[in-house]
Amino acid sequence: MKSFFNLRSKCTGPVTISRGNLLLATAFTLLALLLAGCRLDMHEQPKFKPLRENNFYSDLRASRPLIGGTVARGQLNEDTYLETGFMNGKEGDVMPFPATKEVLNRGRERFNIYCSPCHSQLGDGNGMIVQRGFKRPPSYHIDRLRQAPIGHFFNVMTKGYGAMADYAAQVPVNDRWAIAAYIRVLQLSQHATPADVPADTAIANQPPPMINPMATHGEGAGVREGKNE
C-alpha cells in the first residue's frame, strides 16, 4: 500500500518542461499560424466576381466591356461570303471553295446526320420524325428551292427558318457549305436526264435487283426483280 501512494505522488507531482522543448513548441505554434494565414489569404483573395457589382469602377460593373475591335480566337471571319452566304446584300449562288468529291462526300455524311431526320435522305421532306407527327418541311425538289441560290441553304442552316432551328452551333461553316452542295446533288438526282450522264457511263434500263432481307435469316432466300413494294 505504501508503494502505491509513493507512485501516485510521483505521477501527480509538478511537471517541468525544459527551455528547449518550450522554444520548440512555440516555434511550431507560430509556424502553424503562419501557414493558416497563407491558406486563408488564398481563400479570401481580392478578386472581381463576374457580373457582380463592384465599386472600383464608376459604372459599378466588375465585368468590363470588350475593347472595340476585339476578335475572339478563330472568329476573325475575313471572308464575309464564306461566313454569311451573302454577296452584295443578296444570297450568293456560288460555292466559296471547290465542290470536290471529298466535299460532297462530307456533305452527304453531315446531311444524313443532321438533316435527314426531317428532310429524309432523298430531300423530299418525309423524314422519320415527320412520319411520326413532326411538321413536314418543303421538299428540296419543288421549283422554288430548285431555283434558290446555294447561299439560301447555307443561310437557313446558319440562322434557321420557320419551324427549323439554326444549326450554326452544331455544324461548322465549311460543313454547312458542304451540305448545301450536297443538296444540289440531291436536286439533280431527282431531275437528271440522260444527257446529264457522262458519255462513257452506261445507263441501266431497269432498277437493280432487290435482295430479300429475309434471305439472311433463311426465309425467302433468293433475289427478286422489280421495284421495292
In short:
This protein is mostly helical and about 230 residues long. It has helices spanning about 1-10, 20-45, 80-85, 100-120, 130, 145, 150-160, 175-190; strands at about 85, 90, 210, 225.
Give a description of the structure.
There is one protein chain. This protein has 229 residues and is mostly helical. It has eight helices and four strands; from the N terminus they run αααββαααααββ. It has helices spanning 2-11, 19-43, 80-84, 101-119, 128-131, 143-146, 150-159, 173-191; strands spanning 86-87, 90-91, 210-211, 223-224. A two-stranded antiparallel sheet has the order 1-2. Helix 4 (101-119) packs across helix 8 and helix 7 packs across helix 8. The relative contact order is 0.08.
SSE order and pairing:
Layout lengths: L1 H10 L7 H25 L36 H5 L1 E2 L2 E2 L9 H19 L8 H4 L11 H4 L3 H10 L13 H19 L18 E2 L11 E2 L5
Antiparallel strand pairs: 1-2, 3-4
